[in-house]
Amino acid sequence: MSRIVFFLVPGIHLLDLAGPAQVFSTAAGLGYPYALSHISEQPQVPSAQGLPLVAGVDWPALTAEDLILVPGWRTGTGTGTGTGTPADGSTSAHADGNTGAPAAQPPIGAAALQVLRDHHAAGGTVASVCAGADALGRAGLLDGRRCTTHHDFQDELARRHPGAVVVRDVLFTVDDRVITSAGIASGIDLALHLVAVRHGPAVAARVARDMVVHTRRNGHEPQSSAMLRHRSHLDDTVHRTQNLIDARFAEPLPLTALAAAVGVSERTLTRLFTRATGLTPLRYQQTLRLERAQHLVGNGATLDAAARSVGFEDARMLRRLRARTG
Q1: What is the CATH number of the domain that holds 16?
Q2: What is the CATH number of the domain that holds 278?
Q3: Is 242 part of a structural domain of the chain?
Q4: Start and end of every HTH araC/xylS-type domain (predicted)?
């Protein structure tokens, strides 16, 4: 039996906890030997989303087969992904919102940090989601090791822990039984990876299917997809065009047809699209195809199979696009 111990701190993000917990709970329901524990330094832990959590305060006996996972947090009394407002009226900082502000450091006692150190020294695995990497850094476990966190917190993590090797814009890293992941939903990817390592990719795929996870992503994949990276503009015509391309990027999509579908001329669509995204509609479609093909290759597909799956006639164009972006 492997024990998965979640160490909860005040301001914890619910999805940072719930995503990995659901993965291991689903695996346990399928007959794999996992038991989940939730430990904190206080019996009731306020979450960033307003739901209080109940946790134990006494650490269970741990073996090298067990995992300690530290979910991320946000301070303040606000809910959602915005900045919380503490009682004194000041603006709190967090690692997951849209301000780029650093996550505040919640108090973590010396005893808990020592548990993290001792567990790793005894051969156990420690992991984090989002700002939870800061706890591993405070325990001295990031020194000289590759790590990552939410893209809004990467600079701050590197500043606080200069001995850490912060890898930017990846989903998760694994370095000598220290595993760190980016924000929020990437904790699911981290947990599925651990299930795959222990029980094989077929078991991880079965867990993902039960959780209705669309695809299991590898650690090196970017934190945000091309579909999200080019959506920060306010042009409705371009958003409608992107909706069409997103849904059918593997098909031929002539500019004439796209322009007619959104009710503008080809010239106007190209001008609006380029101004909003920095790409032409064709280049945007190629970006989506390339990203999907890279994912397929990363999961074992050949270049030819991946190229045909995303709409290329053969692998030549895929090779050119990979060389251009590599």
Answers
A1: 3.40.50.880
A2: 1.10.10.60
A3: yes
A4: 239-326
Are the CB atoms for 73 and 48 separated by under 8 Å?
yes
Q: Is 34 helix (H, G, I), strand (E, B) or coil?
A: strand
| Structure-block tokens of residue 51 | 């739901």
Bridge partners, 175 (sequence order):
178
Total count of residues recorded for the chain: 326
Q: What's the burial of 49, exposed, middle or buried (CB within 10 Å: 0-12/13-18/19+)?
A: middle
What is the C-alpha separation between 302 and 318, in angstroms, rounded? 11
> Quick one: pLDDT at residue 217?
54
Low-confidence ranges of the chain (pLDDT < 70): 1, 75-104, 214-228, 299, 325-326
pTM over 0.90: no
Q: Is the dihedral of CA 89, 90, 94, 97 positive or negative?
A: positive
What tokens does 224 get? 């945000």
The predicted-structure confidence for 73-93, as pLDDT tens digits, reads as follows 984 333 333 333 333 333 333
Distance CA 42, CA 114 (A): 17
- Is 217 part of any domain? no
3-state secondary structure of 263: coil
Q: Work out the angle at residue 262's Cα, subtended by the Cα atoms of residues 261 and 263, and round it to the nearest 5 degrees.
A: 95
